[in-house]
Design a protein that fits this description.
1018 residues; alpha/beta; eight-stranded mixed sheet; seven-stranded mixed sheet; 31 helices; 22 strands
Amino acid sequence: MSILRHSEYWSVFLLVICCIMQADGAKRRLQAANETLDYFDRLRTDSSLVQSIQGSNESNVFVVTDTAGDSYRLADISGFLPFSNGRRLRPTVENEAIASLLAIYHFNNPETSPILNAQELEGCNVRLTTEFFDTQFSPINSTRRFTDVLLRNHSLDNPLPAAVVGAYRSATTSPLAILTGVNNIPQVSYASTSTDFDVKEQYPYFSRTVPSTLGEARVAVRYFKDLGASHVGILFVTDAYGSALQKAFQDAAAEVEIVTSSVAFSYSASANGVEIENAVASLANTSFRYFYAICFDSHFEPIMTAADERHMTGKDFLWIFPGLDQGGFQSFAKFPPGSALASVTQGIGLLMPTGGFLPVVLKPDEQVEVPLEDPPTTGYQKLRTAWREALSNPEFDAYVRSKLPESLVNISGFDPTAIFGPEPTQWSSIMYDAVTALGISMCRAGAETEFIQGPSIFEYFRNLTFDGASGTVVIDPETGTRNYTSFTYAIWNVQNYDKLDDQGRVQFQLAPTNYHQDGEWKAVSGIPFIYGDNSTEVPEALPPVNMDMNYIGNAGIIVGYVLMAIIMLFGLAAFVWLCWFHSNKVVISSQPLFLLMVCIGAFVMAATIIPLSLQEPISESGLDAACMSGPWLYVVGSVITFSPLFAKTRGIHNAYKNPQLDFIHVTSLDIFITLGVILGLNLAVLIPWTIIAPLEWTRTLRDSTDTFGRPVESYGACTNENAIPFVVVVLILNVGVLMLANWWAYMSRNIETEYHESRYIGISMASVLQAWCMGVPILIVVWDNPSAKFFVEAGIVFVTALAVLLLIFIPKVLAIRSERIQKAQEEKRGAYNNFQARAKSKHAFDDDSDELAVENAASAPVSNGAAKEDCYPKKSSSTAEATASSEFTKPPPQDAAEADGAATAASVAAVGVAVVGLTAANSNDEADSSSPNRRNSFRSSISARLLHGGAMKSDENTEGVGGIKILHNPRSSRNEEKCGAEEVSREQLASFEDNEEIDDEHFDENESMAVVDEDEAD
């Protein structure tokens, strides 16, 4: 226990000793600083400190020996820094001056520097002094200042610069670099990044400790690429910096396939808002979402104002500004609450090179105390430590103020007593390394010659590699520019700050969210990027695609369903009609099974329209199932419909080849065998098709694109490249069967059957074949147009299904209706004539005169015949007269019973004659009326039937029930007798016969009336 206590005591004791030693070291360094801080400046101006001076016309470096006998080579460095813009003081600009003076002090006293390698500078007697000039961001002003320097009478107290540091803006640096090149003076910039300076023919002695815009552009492009950007709009100022960065960004973006669109504006455009408004309007026309704005502080407000007016800010947009630094931004980005700028500024990003990265949120008007590392491990942390030590020294503070340009007293906002910032800015470490690199280059050049010249300084500079305050500095020997891979970049997210400034304006804090090191972007843990919509969700790089999905429109679907409903309603009506008249001779002759299959097949085919109309948002699996159900429904439905048609057509064709047949008999077995064969062949294709290469719902992109090259049109269809052979086989099979049936129908076209069924079957088969032959090519043409494709598909289904239904059922409906009407008319006429005959007979017999009764009875049919003479043919009238006269030429009856019988016979005969006349005159049977003999025999048979049983019933003859009666066969003996080998239709044959002379010998009235006499005797 005691040992442990003693250990604790010793630990505390050693800690106190260390603290005392550190304090003592700091005190000694402070004393040394006070002694040597301005010593070399005084050595230039105080001749009492100088023992001897040596100079050379080829060098701007003096060799000075002080009174202590120490020899130094004094080199003056002119610092061209933007302390102001000529009207307003630039915030934190003194930090760059502090960094320059601190670097000079550390170089002149390497043993006091925590950053420099003192051993590398051992033996080097080069000592640096400096003088600052305010460029005011103006190329003209900086050129004037430098020209004044060059016109000096070169002396120790008023020397020409051995080197130049600066400037900030590339536009300011450019003329300055030309002058330094002309005068063999090396120039090092800490902020100018234009790639133009890499052209050594124009800027022979320019170098920099900051990467060029090429490196900055590559870093920026990589950041956009990591965000998923594919298109970036570039808004840039047309100075050396802006133009160079724009070109570098554009080239780097092209390497990673990012499309850019660039719009420029002049540096002075902030005074003329119209130019920036037009530039932003041009960017708005691109519809880009990501923007890279290369500008300066004065351009920010007009840019964001114009962007807000065109709805290019806030949600879904991202603006990155590479030309703004933290301190400057927070000083001017203060806007009234509720203003557009106060709203749209939040969510943008500042991409800045940084000599040292600290993951700390920078809050306005608040100094964030970031603890120093102890011991510091990086160059930037070492600079922070030295920075605080220097600023804690009043002598150093005073020394810095004494070095500031005298012209600042005329600048608004300048306070000679203002407190300097406690932390170095992102440019401070780069400035520190620029001065240090010049000193190291001078030392190395001085090892070869006593009087150091500018070109030799530049040659050593371009081959430098050293550890500086901003990290490892690696200079490209070809360009004199720092390699960007040895540099750090950072993204600072502009976020809302919860406190207003002293004028009640909105302020913003800067949050470091990402930094670039070792060739990649890394996220800062715990500090997310907050975008314009106050979310951390990365905006889409482009506006959403206005994709035209080419859906089947509601109107098209309604039309398709209406067509389906029409088919189903007709099919249902046909089924109900079939059930109602199933025992009718017309239905029995056509076979109910045949008609039932036509109804069922049409129903199934109509159902095909349902899967054809399906589309998104139905699930993909559901659409895949619908894709394959379409062919199944249509093929099976068409087979069910066409199998009985095929069987009937084959039967008609067989009858055509066998003219001796009077009826076409197609049994149920024939229909089922036909159905089984055709359906089996189709199933042999459909089943493997469904298993091996089923149709799948696929959405295909069309060639049409938007301005971003994105497809804007697509269409959905059931496709499968491997299904093409199956489709071809199904088409060949069914079209082949249909063409065979049509060929049979064409060959048998002149055959006539009862109710003209053969004709309508042939027409329906031809209609289906025509629909297929026209519909399939049209379907191929409109395949990528879903609405047109669906309409064509529904049309094919509608035509094929409805054509068969109508052509098969409508003639049968009309036939039954015609028979019923004709039967009713005949019954009505018969009853009327019977009534008249009875009335006249009763009147005649009431006179008790047999002779008068006989005369009246005999005159009744003559009167009827005269009355109907204008409505019926002459032959019908003469026939009736002949029959009546034959009947009443018999002797009169001898008694009352006989008289009554005679009267009854006369009445019946009169009714028979009248009905025979009506029937013969109105007969529509062309075949039976084509020959005089057949017409006479028909009249005789009808007369006999009427005399025996009254009116004729059409359902009495059951011969051929279940089959179709053949009315005319073009290959019959009758056709051959009249027309020879020429096949003609029934109408043509009747016309041919009517043109022949009618032989009256074939019409014998006595023979006709003999039948009546014989029946009467019976």
